Amino acid sequence: MSNKFWNQDNVDYTDKCKEDMGVSPLEFEIIVRKQAHSIERIIHVEVEGYCVYCVAETTRGTSEWEFSIDFDDNGHVTGNYDIRSENYESNIPEHFAKKIQRTLMNKDIDNAFKKGVDDVKLAEAVNEHSRIQAKREATRTAERIEKERIAFETAKRQIELKDKENARTHRVIIFLIMLLVFLVVAGGIFFFFTERQHKKANEIHPPAYSSDFLEKNYEDVNAMFIEAGFKNIKLKTKKVSLIQRITKDEGDVYKVTIAGDEEFSKSDWFKKDSRVTIMYYTK
Known about the structure:
With about 280 residues, this protein is α+β, with helices and mostly antiparallel strands. The protein contains five helices and nine strands. It has helices at about 25-35, 90-105, 105-115, 120-200, 220-230, and strands at about 40-50, 50-55, 65-70, 80-85, 205, 230-240, 255-260, 270, 275-280. A hairpin with a 6-residue loop joins strand 2 (about 50-55) and strand 3. Helix 1 (about 25-35) packs across helix 4 (about 120-200). The radius of gyration is 54 Å and the shape is rod-shaped. The relative contact order is 0.09. Mean pLDDT is about 80; it is low at about 1-15.
């Protein structure tokens, strides 16, 4: 037993005997075990010297509690005892102590013990004690196995749920990858057919964004549109004032339109014969 003494104030002390009864520890243990055998709710007994440590069941047998009876009176057995109990309401400790006390005070039994130890009764008591211990150990083992089984099943379910979650995540990732591939392929096909359709309609892209031509030389801009494939290019001049000559150079482009569109990008489509107007400064 892991805890031999308890810090309860439930203590009973008797003072009926004063003299040493001359009972050896072995004789004392035989008396204790014989009396414990007659009390059904006491399921475990340990004897150390003249101290008795017990485990008892509740009335319904659903739980256990402990108590101790100390007959050690300064190294002797006089019949005096102390009781410490975890269960304040039960009278089992007091009943058991008085049964032991009455047996100790019975002179006939006392004399019988002095003649010799009853080895048969001791063996029976030890066997009964071993049986009870084995039963309790089997119960504890079964409870431990059941707890381990529940823990194993719980861990198994958690692993299965984790595996399902991982599989679901993998499926989502695969789906997204396939969707991305599909969109890329579909986009490529769409771009291919769109390009083909525009080219079939004799349409081309501008060589640059509309803002990229500003302040470039008009001749360079004209060459870029010719190289891009535009056929209808017109040049338009605008005289630079005296003030503008400080910041503007002759021949700088200040606006380009394609079919009247002043803001276009390189991805826009225009027919090759769309009118391109390049406007630049001149003195």
